[in-house]
Design brief:
This protein is of the alpha/beta class and 328 residues long. It has a single domain, classed as Rossmann fold, CATH 3.40.50.300. Helix content is 29%, strand content 23%. Strands 6-7-8-3-9-10-12-11 form an 8-stranded mixed sheet, with helices on both faces. A 4-stranded antiparallel sheet has the order 2-1-4-5. A hairpin with a 5-residue loop joins strand 1 and strand 2. Helix 4 packs across helix 5 and helix 6 runs parallel beside helix 7 (193-210). The protein is globular, with a radius of gyration of 21 Å. The two termini are 19 Å apart.
Length: 328
């Protein structure tokens, strides 16, 4: 990432690492290290929707939560408006979180079933001292209206709403403190396809009206291509390719990106796209293959790929890739 790009970024993530230790085996369990994030770097510009895509288990959700320090990273830098997020104490982090919010994947588990929706939306504003009394009630009504829900929803409980409505409530909760950046962690994957479109249109409208920036975590390339302006492709805890849309999917560089693109259906009967399969299973992050982690599934693997992980290469115009095919 260039110094100019970092200086103009709203969010700048550099070299992020997060390892988990787990106990496996019976009757003699052993400790295994899972490299969930292994040197992840990206930046998000003001007003941009930045996508993190990849197969399940690649670390994209961990990256989103680590940015907010909901999961504490082991190494790396996280800068928001140039401020070092990892250096903040508890009080300063709480204040900063007014500007960085998250929409969770599961609309059923992310809301307190015993709390009225109005109280759920009011609490963040009370914590940050944004409103009280009649002004607080009015802001709750305005939030519900903004996400397409009636005012009487404030007096109801989560079980009275559908999955799509609950996700709208989750979005309203994130908006309640007027953030600049929203981490959207698979926000539509648990919803029916018809409801997905409605929620995506809502998120895009909010981006345009409020000038929001997103880190949009998803495994659905079709959704990412429609919603995002830039994207990073992750594989086993590392970013293998990064760049702007639509160039990333019109001319993918990394074999894994090409495979993902080829396996993603195009909703256009006139389009002539040859569907592809990604052969093999995703290796375990607890025991990744040596060299390039994708080489056991890569049709272009060379002997070098089996022993040496490729260095990251900046290619200009926001494009970057980690692949030996692009070594000079």
């Amino acid at each position: 990432m260039t110094a100019t790009a970092a200086a103009s970024a709203l969010l700048d993530v550099e070299g992020l690492r997060k390892f988990f230790t787990v106990r496996r085996g019976f009757p003699n369990p052993r400790t295994i290290t899972v490299r969930a994030l292994d040197g992840v770097s990206f930046s998000v510009r003001p007003g941009e929707a930045f996508g993190l895509v990849g197969e399940s288990g690649c670390g994209k959700s961990t990256a989103g939560r680590a940015v907010l320090r909901l999961i504490e990273p082991d190494e790396g830098a996280i800068r928001f408006h140039g401020k070092d997020v990892r250096a903040l104490d508890r009080g300063a982090l709480r204040a900063l979180r007014r500007k960085m919010q998250i929409v969770f994947q599961d609309p059923y588990a992310s809301l307190n079933p015993k709390r009225l929706i109005g109280k759920t939306l009011a609490e963040p504003m009370q914590v940050h001292g944004l409103a009280k009394g009649a002004a607080l009630a009015e802001r709750v009504r305005a939030l519900l209206d903004e996400v397409g829900l009636p005012a009487d929803a404030a007096g109801r409980y989560p079980h009275e709403f559908s999955g799509g409505q609950r996700q709208r409530i989750g979005i309203a909760r994130a908006l309640s403190v007027e953030p600049e950046l929203v981490i959207a962690d698979e926000p539509v994957s648990a919803l029916d396809v018809s409801i997905q479109a409605q929620v995506l249109l809502l998120l895009r409208g909010l981006q345009q009206r409020r000038g929001l920036s997103y880190v949009f975590v998803s495994h659905d390339l079709g959704v990412v291509r429609w919603f995002c302006q830039a994207v990073a492709v992750m594989y086993l805890g590392r970013i293998v390719e990064r760049g702007p849309l639509p160039a990333m999917f019109d001319e993918p560089l990394h074999p894994y990106t090409k495979a993902l693109r080829g396996a993603s259906p195009v909703p256009d009967p006139r389009a002539r796209v040859t569907m592809m399969r990604i052969e093999g299973e995703v290796p375990s992050a607890a025991s990744p293959p040596p060299g390039c982690h994708f080489h056991p599934r890569c049709p272009h693997a060379m002997e070098r790929c089996r022993v040496e992980y490729p260095a990251w290469k900046e290619l200009g115009q926001g494009r970057g890739v980690a692949c030996h095919l692009f070594d000079e």
